[in-house]
Protein 1
Amino acid sequence: MIPGSITAIAAALTCMAAPLVGVAVLRLTERRIDPRLVAIGAIAASLGAAVTLAAWWHLGNGQPARFGHRLAAGDLVLVDGLTALLLPYVAIVDLAIVLVAPRRAFASAGVRRLLTGTAVTFATFITAHPAALAALWAASIVATRSTIRSTLGGQATARVYGRMMGLALTCMVAGTTLLAADPPWLAGSGARGAAGGWLVALAVMIRKGLIPFHSWYPAIFSGASLATALVVTMPQVATYTAARLLVGHADGVPHELVLLANAALLTAAYGAALAVVQRDVRGLVGMLAMSQSAMVFAGLSGTVPTELCGALAIWVSSGLALTGIGLVTWALESRGGRISIDTLQGRCADAPALAAFFLLFGLAVLGFPGTLSFVADDLIIAGSLDDHVHAGILVIITTVFAAIAVIRGWFRVFGGPVPIDACRHAILPRERVAFTGLLAILFGLGLWPGPFIRSLENVAASLLASRQHHAAPAAPVTGDRR
Amino acid sequence: MNVVPHAPDAISCLVAWQLVAPATALAIIGLPALNGRSLSERTTTRVVAAAFSSCFVAALAVLVLLASRGFTQHVVHLGQLFEVGHHSASIDLVADGLSVPYVCFSTGLCGLVNAFAGKYLHREPGFTRFFILLALFGTGMNLMVLSGSIDVMFAGWEFLGISSALLIGFFHERRNAVDAALRAFVTYRICYVGLFGASVVIHRATGTGDFATLFTSTWPHASCLVDHPTAVAITLLVAFAALGKSAQVPFTSWLPRAMEGPTPSSAIFYGALSIHAGAYVLLRCEALLDAAPLTAWLLVAIGVGTALHAAVVGSVQTDLKSMLAYSSMTQAGIILAEIGLGFRLLPLVHVCSHAILRSLQILRSPSAMHDRHELAAALGGHPGASTWSFVRLLPTGLGRHLYHLALERGFEEAIVLRAVVRPLLAALAAADAFERRWVRLLGGGE
């Protein structure tokens, strides 16, 4: 292993270990130290390590760092462009959640669960081994289910989540077992590898919340705490799993990925359309999250860098923007309970700063010029139209419905007669820091997207190169496999 | 079109200033407001006034410089945003005989409305918000007018849409204002598909979004560079976008309701600039329209139809701003018909003169009502009004039907609601109800 790779792997492991250290500190110093401070320190350390890793990737020669690649069927630790993109992203999302979380939702046990979940997500994003991915899926599903169950009134949601994820986990374990036995990214793989690919695709479909397995996605936003919903959905572990296990097959773009991409396009349009008729803000955020996260898949099966770049850019832009909307919603709920959007709520006078932040995050979701999502939408539509016209049309429909849903939601929450007993709630400094930071990233990368898009192009090129690298020797066996 | 990017020179700097100035004003007043520390009213109006007045002077200077060069087109390349493979996005601005006069009068009007609004909205709770949105609108307008590619035009179009919707809902505590804002935004968003679709067709046909690949020569004597079906497709999509923005049939219902916004924004948006954005886009694509007579005749039919519709409906309105809204709609329809008939300078002159007159009327409308009441008080009764109407020339039955038709706004809104909006919402609500039932079943029926 070359010294640069050691640095990268060390940074990746530090990223994963820092939240666990935070958990240990919280256990040792029960009630003597503010859990929020510990969580901020732990995730900030992870963010520092993740930024170091990203810098290593961008300044290096573009070669991934691997460890444990002699194990059957994959790398136990793989640090490449995708890892360098996703680790800082997850750290930023979690840091924002920790900063904004209301005090009463931030007991020590809850923080420990959050940090453990964060560590599991980091661990997932630094491995490409099927067995390790299946094990980490199991860990995160069990932890999330227990967190939802502990939420007041969350038992029904925990059952919905448990049943859907149980099915997903079963498919994942069976699929990865077959994949490990007969890796389809090696030339000469057979029927077992193909079956494994289809099972993993089914698992991804369920965990990703794609039609027809999408129902748990908005349900978790309605029935669990918003922190849990955001931590579970925003990293998009299922997308990462597909990128590692389904992209790069020996016969080019696998049929599983094409199926997932088409299901994702339908989910994106359907979710955005349903967001228009939601009756409470959580439902709106859930449907938007389902729709936007599905958009990522629209580009993942692409054969041109434009489409893959668009998918990666949407991964980051929609994730950060929806985190922002979710957190503003949480901040509003902490001041006045759940918010219906059946009628006008008149909350603008109550919380004018939150109204401004909600609107700006909404604009960042709907592809407003000057935001990263504008660039992302442009790339994915240009790329998908090169491949399939129907994909571009569905993406356009999605953006229309999503925009109407966001602006309708904003007017319903903040517009309308001000309640006579309304009192003004000032925004807290930590909330302002979190929201301003997220907006700075979204608008900064939107106004000056060049360097970020160049880095995404490198990641896309490495994904496409792995495909082409494997595809060349495998051409004769393509017909045999299918 | 001899599109040769120039090195930075006087014209380039002055054209770039058209974006830099309002965007800087937006940042200067917007960022402190976001941080909870809004600037004072005086500082806010001065910052915005400085931006628009400097833009106006710069635009006049560009006009003079361009006139001295015979209005040859000048392309300003502000830089490339990003590039992936063969796909790239760059910011190119174009100064020519269409864009520069348009910028002159739009920045001039924005400056005047800024001066008016500084007094009119004094101590209004949303004072800073209004000026933030005005600066956003000014940035978007200049971006759209000076755009040298469909992508940049699209970005400016989006700025106009969101600033317009937020200003209609400026008095957000009023239900009507919120409903009107949402209605306008939904109309814009549906018509956005037209411009977005046009952008997609242009990219697929030419590989870039630059207008230089679509038509040659300098406005208004450009000639089309793409084949007939492509020209028809692009113009139909652009016309669809323009119909929504200019409140033409079947998208008229949002305009009278848009008057819920404060008077200065009504003047600048629905009397002057925003309502003519569609006409501007069509004028920019005039070479394509020449190659697509089908679209041109469609524009004439819709424009004339809208003008008649708005004239009839406007005649039974009972409030001044609604009447002015329908008058604007009538003129916008005539302007679209002029464009469809192949005129180029006439619609440009018509847009400018109508915009100036209508802004003045809308800005004057609150005090005109006040003056009328004072006059009535001084005279000891109503000063009287003309009771003549062309309806009196019609047979009584027909006149009554026409009156009913006008009161119901031509049933246009009812038809759109019944045929499109309600079935769509009902289908979505049914799907949502099914989702909820399914989740309840999965969750054990709780």
Note: The CA atoms of residues 179 and 226 of chain A lie 35 Å apart.
Protein 2
Amino acid sequence: MDTVSVENEVIMADDGIVKPVAGGRATIDRDNRETVGDVTAKNPRMRCREVSVFYGEKQAIHDVSLDVGSNEVIALIGPSGCGKSTFLRCLNRMNDTIDGCRVIGDISLDGDSIFDTKMDVVQLRAQVGMVFQKPNPFPKSIFENVAYGPRIHGLTRDKTELEAVVHTSLDRAGLLDEVKDRLGEPGTGLSGGQQQRLCIARAIAVNPEVILMDEPCSALDPIATARIEELIDELREQYAIAIVTHSMQQAARVSQRTAYFHLGDLIEIGETNQVFTNPHHQLTEDYITGRFG
Amino acid sequence: MQTSVLILVLVALTVVGFYLGRSRSVAVAGGTAGSAQLHSLPSYYGYLTAIWCGVPALIVLGFWMAFQDNIITHFVTADLPAETAADPGQLGLALNDVKNLVRGNITSRATDPAMVAAADHYRQLQTISRLALTVVILALAIGGIALSWKRIGPALRARNQVEAVVMVFLILCSTIAIFTTLGIVLSVLFESIRFFRIVPVTEFIFGLEWSPQMAIRADQVGSTGAFGAVPLFAGTLLISGIAMLVAVPIGLMSALYLSEYASRGFRSAAKPVLEILAGVPTVVYGFFAALVVAPQVRGLGEAIGLSVSSESALAAGLVMGIMIIPFVSSLSDDVINAVPQAMRDGSYAMGATRSETIGRVIFPAALPGIVGGVLLAVSRAIGETMIVVMAAGLSSNLTANPLEAVTTVTVQIVTLLVGDQEFDSPKTLAAFALGLVLFVVTLTLNVIALHVVRKYREQYE
């Protein structure tokens, strides 16, 4: 598996900072704002072309093009405020809920533009699920949390089917064994890591194609983080996953491709292995060697 | 010295005390440079001196003013003829006359020499008292400054002492409200007990007829007095019920619209406008109900062949409902906004529409808070007076028909106590019993509501 090989090559020093094996080989100058690397994926699920996002007058993202491919995890990294979360939220049009936010450019899911009038945002979000930074289970029972999506989309015909969906989703999220005897208890009573896995179960209960994760582990302890990372690796077999993370180790561990954002520009995109060991762009190298951000 | 002048002098002394204390502390520390050796900032020594100057003097002044009259009266009583002093009624009249003489007012009857002597004595005692007061207060104030002046030194923990005094002061202020409430409750309670000695509690609570006119003369007709409060409770419930039927849906829906659908600009314009409703005086609502809504309701009823009395529970309830709308909407808006954005994001990210998100996530999450707000609104409706006085009528019908005139607990309290009343007949005492019931009901509702709201708040913290 390439994640493992990445982990071997990106040597973590005792101080926890990722050090590229061969540093200082970046050839592209800091001032170059063009994207370096291949933005396309082998089996693209979502295709973004020249996407720009404005908050009122302020432009948060400049002409970003990027594919999210099937059965891969793409990590979006970059310093705070670089637009990676904003970009992620474009993919399921969550930016619609923000006043004064405008998205231009083209984003398509399986070839259909998500801004098309034919594309209902309800349908889009059923196909593109999302997991947030802070676990946000609804103040309902564990069962009702997972059943939420299937209920609002009318995915199941009767109670037995619904129960089956809830059980499979919890099982796939690796939570079933811990909660199967207390599905009626409130989801807010679980531990942080369990809550986050509950949110993942909730997202996969509607059988999406793409799962977006916005720093899913930043509120969790290392053990819960490890569980989620394992889970992400397993989920890759069925879904396309885009994950925003501040932890470069995490990006190295879970992703196949890595995209580095800086001040609203996509600076570099490539195989995770290559981005971490041999970044082409000087800004990327600065970031992953810990020179800033 | 006049008391007001004395107080002014005291204030001046306190200010002087502040500056003396402050400069003393600086001097003790050896100039501004040495003030680091002091336990507290120089101004704290100033405040401490000011407190020592002002507070004991003010306390003594307060007690003196409170008891001076009683003590002087006590001395003067001894001067009056023995037969007058023996009879409490006569004594009261005589003392009143003495005080009138002292103030130069007209007395109730011809003045006799004993009275004039007593008045002179009174005046003399007053002068002595005033003189003594001036001396004592000034001595206390100056003594306080001197004492504090002597104590000031680097080791004196002035800041802690000032803070302690401030805390005591704040505690006193907060207990004033508590003791006032307690006083109101007790006075209502004791008057109610007097009422229940005449009219049994069971008759009051379970009686079906309310007719508080008591016969003043033995031969008076038709004024037997009946104190069954059930029609009043029923009327109150009916009108409050109608009001809540109007206020809860409209208030809640407008809160949902404002917090979930409306754009920021519309919200910031509409919310204050809605809250203006809460600022309209209830008496204005009252005549609006009586002069505009009630005739409309009657006209409408007649148009569809119903007989509607010109003062109806419906009209009063409708207007009261409108009055309560901002109450419900403002409280609901607060709790709906308190539902974390993460909940909305989570729901929208699942592909839920706005109404699904509201119905399945936001509303259930906010429900306890909304219930709390509604309960507060109910207790507001039950206690509301002006609208029902004007629009609901005075006749105590025991009916569930909103088109008839009914009366409420508050209306009856008003009518029982307005105008000249004898305060020992069951008729007026009944008002206290009604007040007690009203107080207990609204207090219970408020306690439940606050408890529910608090429980809900804990959920997200």
Note: DSSP finds 16 helices and two strands in chain B.
Protein 3
Amino acid sequence: METSIIISGFGGQGALFAGQLLAYAAMESGKEVTWIPSYGPEMRGGTAHCTVVIGDEPVGSPLVRNPDCVVAMNLPSVDKYEPLLKTQGRLIYDSTLVRRSLRRTDIAGVAIPAHDIATRCGSQRLVNVAMLGALLTLCPLVDLAAVEQALHTHLPARHAALLRPNIVALHAGAAYVKALAETQITARG
Amino acid sequence: MTRELWKGNEALAEAAIRAGVDAFFGYPITPQTELLEYMARRMPELGRTFLQAESEIAAINMVYGAACTGVRAMTSSSSPGISLMQEGFSYIAGSEAPCVVVDIMRGGPGLGNIQPGQADYFQITRSAGHGDFHPLVLAPATVQEAVDLAYISFDLAFRYRTLVLLAGDGALGQMMEPVEMPPMRTPDATQPDWALTGAKGRPPRTITSLYLDADELASVNARLQEKLKTIAAAEQRWECFMTDDADLLVVAFGTVARIAKSAVRAARAAGVRAGLFRPISLWPYPAPVLDGLVDQVQGVLVAEMNAGQMLEDVRAIVRGRTPIRFLGRTGGVIPMPDEITNELTHMTRVNHRTNGAGMKRDVE
């Protein structure tokens, strides 16, 4: 069983770091994992993305054409990956930046006001981790505690002041999806 | 042992450090630069030599000079830089100076781009410079394998007094994977009996690739060829994946081979009995093992990130016994698993040879 996740956004939004946190958490949870970035000119302010593949067996291809999950932090990312998602795949996108609705009906799209959540948690720079929290609530690939541990270990020392806000944002993103799911259950019930 | 998440380039550097590299000389080039950056930080901490040269040509000649004194010397680069180093490779081969070179291949020819490629295959396996020689070329497919091969690379280089070339690509260099790092080795303090260490108290030694007398150079070449025969017999490395009952065989190396593993699993799930033969040593090519597999299969698919280079080795081994199909990607484009699976499915449908267009083609 392998699950592939693409995290995509503007360069500087932390898409690559969010993917690394996921990869560290997966490894610490005993899973096999690969992380591979786009490393071209995108790193200089265009869109940047990374692919994370998590599995029980050693991972073959670190790249996938049709991912299981996509975290889209901007509109170009939704435009690019919505058509590529697997049927029944999951697309989490930042509704603060992405104003259009999804075109596909055979995928599960979840809109997260990630910028608002991040700002409430202290900084716009927390968008990536808020969306990671949301992803892991929708697809429980690893425990949030494992991501917290990864933040403790791997958040660069120069960002030490952002450790607590990152953990808060992780849980705020998770809580938003949980609340969303409960609302839907209530609405259906 | 603990597993840590390592980026390919940095893992290669740390593995070489733990293998006891004494001196690193290099010049930055994407997608390999993290290796050099890591060395720049770590080597001085350990009291070892790191020097950023003014060019790749200078770097390989520094490696050459350092290697002649018996120390473990190394450099790393990517395709255009490897081209610049070729003169040095040839002198190193002629002088039998042991050293390790990493090539994190990118799209070519020319400056090409910084995306992954495998189009240096001819260049690095055939001679990597003028004159008759082959480096020992090892092509890891995972970050762990890159570490394991880097860790033994100096042993191989010194055992045979040869150039060992670790051939990866931009994907391997840039990706992160869990790795178990081997322990730090205490470098062997004894100096080789050929090393130039100052002739105090002993007769002077010479290391050269210049032999003006034809008969003398011919005998040097005969000795080099004998050594290559020994390496060819002893140092073949490969992996067979699901080949026991395979009807179709994918042949691929490095990053494409690990992508092909996913494709083989997908093909199996769809009822196609596929397997993968992955050469780990590109020179010497593990020809006998592939030769043995050819008679059992109904077709061979060669997949590479080039226009068909290893393909020529595979053709020479298959010798027309089974159809060969080729899937090539150039320009830094990485083949996706489904492309390889589709080729395998296609091969089960056609039992006649067709003329494919572009990079997908039936070869013979």
Note: Confidence is low (pLDDT under 50) at residues 352-358 of chain B.
Protein 4
Amino acid sequence: MFKGIVLTIIAVWFTLIVNAQTASTGMEEETNIYEKIFDAPLHLSGEQQMTFTALYQQKPILVALIFTRCSGICSPFLLELKDNLQQTDDKSFNILVISFDPRDNLEDMNNMAQKFGLENDPQWIFAVTDSIEQLNQSIGFYPIWDNETGQFDHDALLVGVNIEGYITKKLIGIRKKHDLDLLISSVNNVFSPTYRLPNKNSLFSCFNYDPKTGKNTPGLGLLFIALPAVLTVLMLVSISYFVRNKSQRMDRPYSE
Amino acid sequence: MESIKLRKITSVWILAVFVLFIVSIVLGILMRLNQGEIIKQNSVTFYTNMTTHGLTMIGIWFVAGMAAINYLMERYVKTSYTANMIALVLTVIGVLMFWATTFIGKFHAGWTFLYPLPFKVMWATWATPLFLVSLTVLGLGWLIWSISLMTQILRKYSISQAFAWQHFKKNPSVETPPFILISMITLVGVIACLLAAVVLIVLFFAEFFSNGSFVNDALLMKNLTYFFGHTIANEMLYLGLAVIYELFSEVSGTPKWKTTWYVAVAWNCTLIFILTAFFHHLYMDFVQPEGFQIIGQLASYLASLPAAGVTVFSVLIAVYRTKIKWSLTNLLFFIGVAGWVIGGLGAVIDATISNNVVLHNTLWVPAHFHTYNAMGNVLFSIAFFYWFSTQFTENNIKSEKLTMATLTILLIGGIGFLLAFYVGGADSVPRRYSTYPAEFTSAAPLAVIGAIFATIYLIAILIFFFNISKRCLKVLSSPS
């Protein structure tokens, strides 16, 4: 009976552990890295059909997720990307601009390509897919429809996919050329340093960065590095005090 | 005098360590054969083997040192059999859990399990929590054992006596045996690094269960990982040195070593500096403050030099122009000290910031730590195992001759195996690659050479195993 209870407790506890969240850290740029992108069927301009796999096997790709009716970040996002890429002569990759809005069709995408003057650039590919849900899921991209504005609430997301179909790096927001270079390096399997963005959920940082002053101040995390040594000293002194006090008590002759 | 129960449990430790050691060497040879393109392992199998090899080796040579000092400490203070037994049981459970995560769950984040790697699940979902639980079980057992031994020392010696502070002055009233001093220094370091592991595991679990509402600081986690990992890897060497200070003179038939002022100073310095030397693992972390990097380099020098200097001096004085009785035990100690010093020099070279820029994460790293482990600490422990096994069983000349031949095989295998690492490191061959790109032309041939010599080393270990385990089994089967 007792064994059964203990085993049940262990089983329940272990199930809880296994089901605990392991990947959701609230750091969107870090999710889904080194996972394979979904092999979605793509409809490309010029009535071409192609799978994602066939596309990334040709060259690594930078995937830009947009929708054509966007009145917000999509246009400046693509414009900045185009400007940054014009500064480099690197043709080792393609850029896939894909719509995550099911209402968009190939004509919409072609119009967008023309708007940005990219319709004849072979490095730029504009496409739609029927499997956007699965594709979004594999990237970790979750646009939310807002009925009031008639717009999607979404990140400006650029995803690097290498020639084997693995997501190597993600950039959220409109980013400078330096960050883009790191993304391009990563899809070409070249090492690029990575760092985690500041987050309110990170309680024990060793240093806290103040963007106003541009300076780091010591954080709570530094105390944790010293903690084991401090605990050891406390333990040493306490044990010594306890055992020596005890032995003195035992050595003392009984005088009453 | 030690009890029969202590003899028996020490025998169990020796047998367990040997069995796990042999399995781990085989895994290491398979890794080198794969790097040498003689066999084909997929990358998951390679990194699973690497994780198992690394953590098992660290664990077994730590417990080997602990079992040895526990056994010898009985000469000075009464030790707790219960704590010893708890450590044994929890070690067995912990190792089984850990091997389940790697061999069944395919967990392969390396023995350093650097954050956030364990959370980037590329293995069975249950493997990450079970791996953390296995570390908790192992750490708990070892912490209980270490605290118990430290408590027993403190029952007899005050803090200042245990650290031999009275030896800083002339004519101390009480003498602290060197064995007690080094054991105490080491146990304090062990407890500190195990507590670092406790903090680390708590933070891992906190993030694991937080559903994303709590994330750890990567810099803090890396500092804690190496506080634990680097320190325990060094402390286990010091456990071996405590055994040398106790047994070398005894088996050599020379006067017992005594604690002098310089021995006391050197070991007290080692205690302080070893706890900060781990910063040298973070030289490449651009966010680590420069001050910590400088502390890392200075502490790396200051932690190794006093203890090494005093020990080498003591060993050389003991053998220079002195008629001593050589046996396998003190020969292994002597060669082990040489291996420790050579590996230590390799480590100090790597810990120098200007060199680290070139040597970081090359085969130089496994070269130096395999030197002071495979040809240092392992030899200290095998020396103790051999000495222990001959205490209660007949020792005939034939077996003595065989063991000398075995020692020669061990040396040939060990040196060849290590040279393949050093040459690779000097040639900038990176470590932790399951297969090498064609650009590293020397990498695969060196890996094959390494595997061949490691196999020779394994043959020597197998002979030691059969020789020593036979006697340990006799101890186990003797009436209580």
Note: The mean pLDDT of chain B is 92.
